[in-house]
Amino acid sequence: MQFGRIYEEFEVGAIYKHWPGKTVTEYDDHLFCLLTMNHHPLHLDVNYAERTTDFGKNVVVGNYVYSLLLGMSVPDVSGKAIANLEIESLRHVAPTFHGDTIYGETTVLDKTPSKSKSDRGIVHVETIGYKQDGTIVCIFRRKVMVPTREYIDARGGEQPGRPEPTPREKK
């Protein structure tokens, strides 16, 4: 199974459909809110959401949706990244609710070799997240510095430092 890509493997226009999707639970949303100290009642208080919002129910905090999609994209996009350079744009297009399943896909917009080092390049991508009914909920663009084959080979290959299992003792 591939984890990330080297610069040479990216093609402008390629689309990576991230799999599997993730069904967002109330627990996921509340834990993320508590971990990030976002205590807005829109996310945490059912009574508040039912009585005072246009949606009539809790809305999943947007940064969780973004983080989920970013994580989903790692095996396809940034698993070998040297650095995440920039989040160029981030738009929350539609709300996500508890019980929605989020899917994501990333399109390669551009790639440019590094101007200062020949062993790396910059890949510009756009990731979209959508719900089980196809409604787009989040779109973001980012730039990632990824290694070339030269970089990987100079550092011991795909999984440098991975130990070999020691033989079992025979009984």
TrEMBL record:
GO terms for molecular function: lyase activity. This is L-erythro-3-methylmalyl-CoA dehydratase. InterPro entries: HotDog_dom_sf, MC_hydratase, MCH/BMMD. It comes from Jatrophihabitans endophyticus. Residues 151-171 are annotated as: Disordered. Pfam families: MC_hydratase.
